[in-house]
Amino acid sequence: MLGGFAALEWRSRNPTVPLYLLRHRVIGPAILIGLIAGTLMFGVTAYLPLLVQSVQGRSAYEAGVAVAAMSFGWPIASSLSGFAMVRIGYQRLVVIGALALLAGSVMLAAAQPNSGLLWTGGASLIIGVGMGTFTAPLLIVIQANVGWAQRGAATALNQFSRTIGGAIGVALMGIVLQRYVGSAHAPLEAREELYRGLHADFIALVVLAAGVLVAGIAALFASRRQRLQARASEVASAGS
Q1: Residue 80 burial (CB < 10 Å; 0-12/13-18/19+)?
Q2: How many domains does the structure of the chain reveal?
Q3: Total-model pTM
């Protein structure tokens, strides 16, 4: 169904979702970052409580604290990134946020059944910091590379990619987890199988976070190259 929708939108003269923007050498990687970020965000929200409660044997309250740490890190980092954006540029903030995502994902993948709440909550906090650091700069990257007439569509595509990434990513993570716990008589009580399944999911998040970093670096260099070309064109026009 999703493939059919994409095919129709790609052929349409007035698409609801402007998929043609994916061909842009800056917007394409930026949308990929949003897609993967959605998987990371919703994946942590969906599966971190399962690790804390069913594997580590902690309470629902502690599981909520671990997930809530991401919600604390996000707005704080988002506020600080607004000040940093003026000094170091929004493109670099995308890379810095991707590094934080990678660090938090590695911490989750390294979590053990006896890891404390400080470790899992810290991983969630760092992922939230990463999301907050690059969310606004990423939107600016996208909007700065399209005309005024396309900015609304480009912004919508950014939000759409995050939602789709979360939906597909969480579903795939569930399939992976099911492969480990499917044979157990009581899946939620099979701590060893649950741990191995969640560990596999979090390893996948590490790979995706590395993909965010690569895409962020690609968008950074593509944006710089485009600005240099624009300046060269202006100089050539002024000289003529």
Answers
A1: middle
A2: 1
A3: 0.85
